[in-house]
User: Fold this.
Amino acid sequence: MANMAQAIRLALHYAEENLELKDVFGEDVGPPLGGVFTATQGIKSAWNSPLDERGIIGCAMGIAMTGDRCVAEIQFCDYIFNTIDLLKMVGNTYWTTHGRMPLPLVVMTPVGAGIRGSVYHSHSFDAWASRLPGWKIVMPSNPKDAYGLLLSAIADPNPVLFLKPKALLRVKGKEMIPGEPEGDKVLKSMIDAPVGDRSNWKPKWPKIEDYRVPIGKAEVTRQGEDLTIVSYGRTLPICNTVADELQDKGHSVEVIDLRSIYPYDWQAIKTSVQKTKKVLFVNEDTEVTNFAEHLAYRVGQELFYEIYAAPRVLAAKNLPGIGLHPNLEDNTVPQKPQITEAALDVIGQQP
Amino acid sequence: MAKKKKKNKSTSSHSQQLPLPKNQILELYDLMVKARVLEERLIKIYKSGDAYFWIGGPGEEGFGVPLGLLINKGQGHNHDWLHLHYRCSPTLVAMGMPYIDAIRLIMNKATDINTGGRNFANHYCYPEWNVAPVTSPIEVQYSAAIGTAWAQHRENANGITIVSGGDAGTAEGDFASCLVWASRPGNELPLLITVQNNRWGISTSYDTQHGEQSIADRGKAFGMKTKVINANDPIEGYLGMKECIEYIRKNKKPMLVEFKVSRLYGHSSADGANLRNEEDCIQNLEEKLLNWKLITKEEIKNIRANYEAEAKKATEQARTEGGPEANTLWDHVYVDNENADWRNF
Ligand SMILES: Cc1ncc(C[n+]2csc(CCOP(=O)(O)OP(=O)(O)O)c2C)c(N)n1
Assistant:
């Protein structure tokens, strides 16, 4: 099975062959490295940009103005903050020009903790991104969704921010990408660049097929009756594990992988919460003015008389950074013990 | 209209060598006046309470009109891309923008094709002419210009990209980005980087903030051809602009060019929009035209009066039109009006 980095590569390859993707660029995105997480190795249209995030977003904007499709990368979302006004501008251009200037572009950037990345390689961006109207924002939690969401993002006529949970980039999927060869070793030998001299290396692309995950559509990854957990990205597989473990203890937990942060799948949340009557939102951006607070607010407003417990948000502590030592990181962003505890706590509440 | 009359005079006895064919000089003059009259009308519209804000380009016609006349206008990679700022009405006028477009924009009418009543005066967008949206944050256009120039470079297209902005804004990082990205070895971009140096930020004087000898000098460190042009002499502005555009079209390499201009009505309506005592490029050209006997004082008056009447008529038309309705707020957040309101997800 492909890991998420390979899935992204497969999607970029598919898009340059079939969706007129013209440029994939950013810091160290082209040869020889192919991206700090190898997500752009072997991509024909991948090139190295100057070390200049504003230039990267500006360039993407200009390319999109011409109608050409591009995927621009910000190497770590920790370094996207000096482009925030350009991101705002990308989001408002179509609206401000009253529909005259669409900007079909994709920005992808690794987000979140989980690789012992210390203060400047552990930031999240989903809550910030949710305050950029005009963008669509997606975040996969497995390779197949990464493939399907990236193709949808590239084909979308609007700007799309593709958040890559960096802790999951090397995690293999459980489902095949359509057209993916059987056996990990085969895919690796075909599309992973060799260690050492790569100057003559070329990938052998498998005949992968079109597969889209619609933007705005969530997926129920565990069925349950007693609690709904809504999550995305790095914390999603942990929530699945928590649901499995609680199942053994007699608690039935439903898990929703939101996949799209904006537009988000309210119908999926609503349907599930109307059934379970209890909801826990989990993500790893900081907790104050967190995107999940909006969702919890909405549950409170629209489902108040149907629910049996106050909607709960479990997110990163509102600290200036994520400390490097495991004791610091693991107690800052949600991990399995905190998610389990919060889940049991919400399940235990009685009206 | 000015042109017809001058035909009879073409036999007049100016034995001196003109720097440009006579009809081109007269067209340049005519469009500069046309642009100036528009800005003066926009200021009047603001002062009469029909607009919330004015900002524009009176005093920069010696840069803007030559640019509008010399570009390869159209849509697509093979035409020139323009990344303009809020003082560039002269370029749009020279390209053929009707007055009514600018007037509907400053009055925030629903009929404003540039922004639908959403944005400030002189914030244009003409995709059909490769005119990128003008936006308020200073200098961001220098980053976006990299992208259109890159696409033209990638496709080996005939079009080039031109970006404009003020002197104070060159302190922003986007200006440096533009220089860096335009001059990468092996990937030099067909990009004309211009700066309209009117020697002012809002109220901050150029002399207190610039240690460099000239802004254009900054291009030298990147191996770029550079030039300083006095656009208060519109003939110099035109000939200089022509040389730069031809160089970039031929060599597919960037240039950094500084145009000296004036700011005749201050920064914006925020500081009064009153006429200041600065050198006026139109007066300069008029003096030359009179010396060369290409025009009479009477004709000068007529050109102005005709454009004033045209501007007035457009204003009267726009006054009859309504503003955008509140129920259009969510229009064009996403393409094809895909729902963007979370209440309806
Ligand atoms: C990023 C940003 N900072 C500040 C402002 C407010 N502002 C608007 S115009 C201006 C001065 C710009 O001066 P200059 O770049 O020389 O251009 P000019 O207006 O003189 O043509 C300032 C500070 C802004 N619009 N954008």
Remarks:
- Chain B has one domain: 20-319.
- Strands of chain B lie at 81-83, 161-163, 191-197, 225-230, 255-260.
